[in-house]
TrEMBL record:
Annotated TM spans: none
InterPro entries in UniProt: AB_hydrolase_1 (IPR000073), AB_hydrolase_fold (IPR029058)
GO CC term, one of those recorded: membrane
Family matches, as PANTHER family: MONOACYLGLYCEROL_DIACYLGLYCEROL O-ACYLTRANSFERASE, TRANSMEMBRANE PROTEIN 68
Superkingdom per UniProt: Eukaryota
Protein name: AB hydrolase-1 domain-containing protein
Domain AB hydrolase-1 intervals: 196-449
Length: 469
C-alpha cells in the first residue's frame, strides 16, 4: 500500500510538472475588393486598418505617434502590441504586408505563447479588382477554440470595414451643386463665366450652399470634393484645380470662337482652400481669385499652433478635440437667426421661392454626412495640407500673384484670424492684384457665407469695378 501511495504521488507530480499542450491556431479571412487594384488596396490597409485601426474595437496608440506609417502600435485596453515586420514592394503575383505581435498583453498572454503570433495580409489581382487574404497564426496553451473564433470575428470585422472603405471614392471630383441638389437652372450655363469652388479642411464644398442659387444665376459652378479617404498630397489638390482651369480655358476659347462669347474663369477658395486658390491663381490664367474666410493665418491660433501635437493624438482623442472646438465655427448672429426662423417660419432672402426652398431642405438633409470627416482624414489633412496652404498666403508667396483678388471675411471669426489675415493679404499683395476687401459684420468662420452676404452682388461689383470682365 505504501508503494502504491508513493507511485500515485509520483504520477501526480509528473502530471503537474508536464507542460500544457500547445495548439496551433490558424485563421484565414478573404474578401473580394471590386474595382480596386492590389496597390491601392494595400495602401488603404496600411493607412486605414493599420495606422488608424479601422474596424478594430480598440484605441490605437501609434509608435511613433506622428508617423504617417507607424512601425508599431498598441491596442488599448487589450495591451496587445504589434510591429509592422515587412512590406513587400516588388512581388509579382501579390502584394504583402506582414506584422507580428511583440507583446500579447495581459489578456492574450494567459493563453497565447509570446513570440508565436504573426499576421500576413496579401492582395492579389483578380478580374474585377483584387482579393485580400488576411492570415493570422499563433500558438495557444489553452482555450484555442475560443481564441480562434475571437480572431475570426475581429479580423472579419476589420476586413469588412476595409472592404467598405475602399468602395468609397478616394479621388477628388467636381460637381455642380445646383444639379446635385435638384435646383433647375434658367438657360444654358455654358455661356456664363466659370466659378471653381475649392473647399476647406472638410473637403465637401457645401459650406457655402446658401450662396449657390444666386451665384448660379451668373456663373457656371464647379465645386471640388475631396472625399474622406482621399490621401493625395497638397500638390495633387492644387494640380487638380489647375488642370480644371486649363480645361476651362480651352472650352472658353472654343466658346469664344463659336459663339463670340467671352468666358472668364474665377477661382474661389474657402478657409484652407483660400491658400489653394492662391496657388492655383499663381500657376494658371484665372480672371480673378476670391478668398473667403482665409485660413492662411491658422498657425497663429491656439489650435493651429498645437497642430504638431494634435496629429499625434489617438483617433478618438483627436475627434473629441475637433468636436469640442467646433463652437469656433459659429457666431451669435447665426444662432439667433436660426432660432428666429425656426420659430417664425421666416425664409432666407437668398432662398425665396418654392424651388430654392426645396433645394435648401435637400442640402440640409445631406449636410451631416457630407461634412462628416473621420479623425484619420483630419490628421492627414492637418499634417499634409495645412502647412502648404498657410505658406501660399505668405508675403513672399503673394509676390507671384497677378490676378485680381477679392477677400471676404467675417469680423467675428473665432476659428482663424480671418479679418486680420484679409487686411494683411491686401497689404502684402502686389499692386496689380488690386485687392478688394469685403467684411461680413459679426460673422464667424461659417457665418461669412450665410445670407448676411450676397456673394453674387459683391462679385458683380468687383468684376465691374476692378476685374473688367
Amino acid at each position: 500500500m505504501q508503494r502504491l501511495a508513493l507511485l500515485a504521488a509520483a504520477v501526480q507530480t509528473t502530471a503537474l510538472q508536464r507542460p500544457p499542450v500547445v495548439k496551433r491556431v490558424d485563421v484565414e479571412v478573404t474578401r473580394q475588393l471590386d474595382g480596386v487594384s492590389p496597390e491601392h488596396a494595400r495602401e488603404a490597409w496600411l493607412d486605414y486598418s493599420w495606422t488608424s485601426g479601422g474596424g478594430i474595437p480598440a484605441l490605437v496608440l501609434r509608435e511613433p505617434a506622428d508617423a504617417k506609417l507607424p512601425s508599431a502600435r498598441t491596442l488599448v485596453p487589450a495591451g496587445l502590441r504589434e510591429e509592422l515586420a515587412y512590406v513587400d514592394e516588388t512581388a509579382d503575383e501579390e502584394l504583402v504586408a506582414r506584422y507580428r505581435v511583440s507583446d500579447p498583453g495581459p489578456l492574450l498572454g494567459l493563453d497565447v505563447v509570446n513570440g508565436s503570433h504573426t499576421g500576413l495580409v496579401a492582395f492579389s489581382q483578380t478580374e474585377n479588382g483584387c482579393e485580400m487574404r488576411w492570415e493570422v497564426s499563433f500558438d495557444c496553451r489553452g482555450r484555442a477554440g475560443f481564441w480562434k473564433q475571437a480572431t475570426e470575428f475581429l479580423v472579419g470585422n476589420a476586413a469588412d470595414a476595409l472592404q467598405s472603405y475602399v468602395t468609397k471614392p478616394s479621388a477628388p471630383y467636381w460637381f455642380d451643386p445646383l444639379s446635385e441638389f435638384g435646383l433647375a437652372r434658367d438657360g444654358d450655363a455654358s455661356d456664363k463665366p466659370l466659378l471653381l469652388v475649392l473647399p476647406g479642411l472638410d473637403g465637401s464644398s457645401v459650406t457655402a450652399w446658401m450662396q449657390y442659387p444666386e451665384l448660379g444665376e451668373a456663373y457656371d459652378l464647379r465645386c471640388l470634393v475631396l472625399p474622406a479617404n482621399c490621401r493625395g498630397s497638397y500638390e495633387d489638390w492644387v494640380n487638380t484645380a489647375v488642370e480644371e482651369v486649363e480645361k476651362a480655358a480651352l472650352r472658353a476659347e472654343a466658346s469664344r470662337l463659336l459663339k463670340k462669347v467671352e468666358r472668364p474663369v474665377f477661382v474661389l477658395g474657402e478657409s484652407m482652400g483660400a491658400g489653394v486658390a492662391l496657388d492655383v491663381a499663381a500657376r494658371s490664367s484665372v480672371a480673378g481669385a476670391v478668398l473667403v474666410s482665409p485660413a492662411t493665418g491658422g498657425d497663429r491660433t491656439a489650435l493651429g499652433g498645437a497642430r504638431s501635437k494634435l496629429v499625434r493624438l489617438p483617433d478618438p482623442v483627436l475627434a473629441l478635440v475637433i468636436a469640442l472646438s467646433s463652437y469656433q465655427l459659429l457666431d451669435r448672429g447665426q444662432l439667433d437667426t436660426t432660432l428666429r426662423r425656426i420659430a417664425t417660419g421666416e425664409t432666407s432672402p437668398l432662398l425665396e421661392g418654392e424651388d430654392r426652398e426645396a433645394y435648401a431642405w435637400r442640402v440640409v438633409g445631406e449636410l451631416p454626412q457630407r461634412l462628416a470627416l473621420p479623425a484619420s482624414a483630419c490628421r492627414h489633412r492637418m499634417r499634409e495640407w495645412v502647412g502648404p496652404s498657410i505658406a501660399a498666403g505668405s508675403a513672399d508667396a503673394l509676390q507671384k500673384q497677378t490676378a485680381p483678388l477679392l477677400i471676404v471675411a467675417g469680423t467675428a471669426d473665432l476659428r482663424v484670424p480671418a479679418e486680420e489675415e484679409a487686411r494683411r493679404i491686401a497689404r502684402d499683395a502686389p499692386p496689380q492684384c488690386l485687392p478688394r476687401l469685403h467684411f461680413v459684420e459679426g460673422a464667424g468662420h461659417a457665418g461669412a457665407t450665410d445670407d448676411r452676404l450676397d456673394l453674387r452682388a459683391v462679385m458683380d461689383a468687383w468684376r465691374r469695378e476692378v476685374v473688367g470682365v
